[in-house]
């Protein structure tokens, strides 16, 4: 798939390679295999469905590099969740990176332009997924075989709605394309994109399989409810109209389904939180919390994005890569003191450099030995800023992942997990949504904090629960999971001077930036190619 030169039109060659065990197919020669073969029957269509999931986890047709889906950007960098991390975490208080790749330092400094490789790469990655899903939906609908095919189409429609949710959040007004076409598309308003995502999710909720009925790695109807919860929580930002009552309604539906917060301390270290981010999180109990996850396997679904990036890039300084199940670190990712200081239950014992070495809150997964809390220099100075040890390529017993070379990681990456829906519910209640209950909201927050503390020592009362607490709790629970920019925008802290973090706006102590930074630019070459499009303000 060459670099897409006009938005949202690709006729995909469906090479059936998947990171989902139950959807795996043998790679097929694209020169001898056509859409007629792919959609010959329901079984073949299931294989095509695999590509829709895989295109969010992988980057090309033959593994970590070579035959990329998108050219013009480093293939590993172009992977969806790695780009999401770059745009939604590196532009916030959660993360900095020491590398000088063109466009990368601009993200934390919040001074990117319309030609930025990372914003452009994300736009094309999402455009590709829309194109893949449109093609699948058109072709699979012609089979008219059975309810199973109908469910496949519903899954494809979910993935398309999820992709448009990302476009809505990151870019705002984009073309809305639901059929394969060679025409240059018109631009839809942000409100129109919102309405499309909403209507699609409402339409497919009963077409998707029941809660837990699909094999691990495929979405069911709870995913639609959970995404509606996210959509409605952000509706005031997206459309100017609050929908907190609806956020409560669909949070309740997701919470009361078959998913559950992981409390299984499989490695016996007194915490069940870290199990969510280990190499066996598809089987150690964490999978019961994952409503939608990207699945990775160190042998069968190799990429330099995904959790391979999150594990390797976060290792440097005096850290021992062996303890993380990989063969070395890339000395890139760290965090700022703004995140560290949100874990205000730190105990008094420190290391030789005066850094805390233990937190009562087990979610504070930081490496401090030889690391400075203060960041004086981002570029090429791994020891400035605490390192983050959240993601590992070892299982609950400490055994490494399946890739004997230690290059590629097994750890699955939750995109939506039940803990987030607990937090959505609580925030929607505090923002005045109807049908919720403050005591119930407090109970959900305390369930997360009981897991984090290993006891009720960190629990709060309903009087302690306010919006400031929720924003900080979202940071403590969800950091490095691709959520932070969206949260800060919703709380009006992303661009303003009301909340500053190190090097926000390119200033060591942090400074406000222009409000137009709440949206990323449409790629400059897309604007040149398609006269129907108007660039976002400020670019």
Automatic annotation (TrEMBL):
GO cellular component terms attached to this protein's record: cell outer membrane
InterPro entries, alphabetized: SusD-like_N, SusD_RagB_dom, TPR-like_helical_dom_sf
Tree of life domain: Bacteria
Domain RagB/SusD: from-to ranges: 373-539
Domain SusD-like N-terminal: 122-233
The keyword Cytoplasm is assigned to this record: no
Record family assignment: Belongs to the SusD family.
Protein name: Putative outer membrane starch-binding protein
Natural source organism: Leeuwenhoekiella marinoflava
């Amino acid at each position: 798939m060459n670099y897409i030169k006009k938005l949202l039109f690709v006729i995909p060659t469906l090479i059936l390679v998947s990171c989902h065990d139950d959807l795996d197919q043998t790679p097929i020669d694209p020169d001898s295999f056509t859409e007629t073969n792919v959609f010959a029957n329901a079984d073949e269509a299931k294989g095509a469905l695999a590509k829709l999931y895989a295109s969010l986890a992988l980057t090309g047709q033959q593994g970590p590099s070579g035959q990329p889906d998108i050219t013009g950007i480093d293939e590993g960098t172009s992977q969806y969740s790695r780009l999401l991390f770059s745009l939604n975490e590196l532009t916030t208080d959660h993360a900095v990176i020491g590398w000088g790749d063109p466009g990368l330092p601009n993200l934390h400094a919040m001074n990117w332009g319309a030609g930025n490789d990372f914003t452009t790469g994300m736009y094309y990655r999402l455009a590709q997924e829309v194109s893949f899903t449109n093609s699948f939906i058109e072709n699979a609908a012609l089979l008219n075989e059975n309810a199973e095919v109908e469910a496949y189409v519903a899954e494809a429609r979910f993935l398309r709605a999820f992709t448009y949710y990302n476009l809505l959040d990151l870019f705002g007004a984009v073309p809305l394309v639901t059929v394969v076409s060679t025409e240059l598309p018109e631009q839809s308003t942000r409100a129109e994109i919102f309405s499309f995502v909403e209507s699609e999710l409402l339409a497919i909720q009963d077409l998707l399989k029941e809660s837990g009925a699909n094999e691990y790695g495929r979405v069911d109807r709870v995913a639609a409810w959970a995404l509606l919860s996210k959509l409605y929580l952000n509706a005031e930002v997206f459309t100017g109209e609050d929908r907190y009552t609806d956020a409560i309604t669909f949070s309740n539906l997701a919470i009361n389904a078959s998913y559950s917060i992981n409390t299984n301390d499989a490695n016996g270290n007194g915490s069940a939180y870290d199990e969510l981010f280990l190499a066996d999180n598809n089987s150690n109990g964490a999978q019961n919390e994952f409503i939608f996850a990207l699945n990775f396997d160190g042998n069968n679904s190799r990429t330099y994005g995904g959790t391979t990036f999150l594990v390797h890039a976060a290792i440097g300084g005096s850290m021992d890569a062996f303890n993380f199940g990989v063969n070395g670190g890339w000395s890139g990712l760290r965090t700022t003191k703004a995140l560290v200081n949100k874990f205000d239950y730190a105990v008094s014992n420190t290391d030789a450099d005066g850094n805390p070495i233990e937190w009562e809150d087990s979610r504070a997964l930081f490496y401090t030995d030889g690391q400075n809390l203060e960041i004086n220099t981002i570029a090429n100075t791994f020891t400035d800023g605490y390192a983050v040890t959240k993601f590992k390529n070892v299982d609950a017993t400490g055994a490494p992942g399946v890739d004997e070379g230690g290059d590629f990681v097994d750890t699955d990456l939750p995109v939506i997990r039940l803990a987030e829906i607990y937090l959505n519910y609580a925030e929607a209640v505090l923002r005045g949504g109807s049908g919720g209950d403050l005591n119930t909201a407090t109970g959900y927050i305390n369930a997360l904090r009981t897991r984090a503390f290993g006891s009720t020592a960190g629990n709060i009362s309903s009087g302690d629960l306010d919006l400031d607490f929720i924003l900080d709790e979202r940071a403590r629970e969800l950091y490095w999971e691709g959520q932070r920019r969206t949260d800060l925008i919703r709380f009006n802290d992303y661009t303003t001077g009301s909340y500053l973090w190190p090097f926000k706006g390119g200033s060591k102590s942090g400074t406000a930036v222009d409000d137009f930074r709440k949206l990323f630019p449409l790629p400059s070459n897309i604007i040149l190619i398609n006269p129907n499009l108007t660039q976002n303000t400020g670019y």
